[in-house]
Write a structure and sequence with these properties.
The chain is mainly α. Helices cover 71% and strands 0% of the residues. It has helices at 2-18, 41-44, 55-140. It is flat.
Length: 151
């Protein structure tokens, strides 16, 4: 009985990962479009003082702009939302696949190979350059500089 309960809990956990519920009220919980698409009528159309249209035209323009923006967005999202979601899902799956199966293994391989090259390089530096610079330091070590200020 305990095994069946554990198996049921595992199935629920696996199902929850793929079918988690989304928030239909707050559709931008991480605020990624906070400063991008907030375009209202006042942001696009404005009449300066002294050049006002008729009040009825202004009200109708506001209503037309707001309603057309609302319904055009809904129509475009209904027609193109699901195909673009498939495209973006495929793209991010491809990026994840390449990162997991190509990028990380290449970097790990490079780090392993560069470690060997690093040891050889270090050996060459210590073999050839250390004696040279040690000799130069002994030659130049006895140089004394005296600065005098004459008035």
């Amino acid at each position: 009985m305990a095994e069946e309960q554990t198996e049921l809990e595992e199935r629920i956990i696996i199902k929850d990962q793929h079918t988690k519920e989304i928030d239909l009220v707050n559709r931008d919980p991480k605020h990624i479009n906070e400063d991008v698409v907030k375009v209202d009528f006042e942001d696009v159309i404005a009449e300066p003082v002294g050049t006002y249209s008729f009040d009825g035209v202004w009200k109708t323009s506001y209503t037309t702009f707001t309603v057309s923006k609302y319904w055009c967005y809904r129509l475009l999202s209904a027609v193109l939302g699901i195909p673009l979601a498939v495209v973006w899902g495929f793209l991010f799956a491809l990026i994840s696949f390449c990162h997991i199966w190509a990028v990380v293994p290449c970097i790990k391989s490079y780090l392993i190979e560069i470690q060997c090259v690093s040891r050889i390089y270090s050996l060459c530096i210590h073999t050839f350059c250390d004696p040279l610079f040690e000799a130069l330091s002994k030659i130049c070590g006895n140089i004394r500089v005296a600065l005098r200020k004459e008035i």
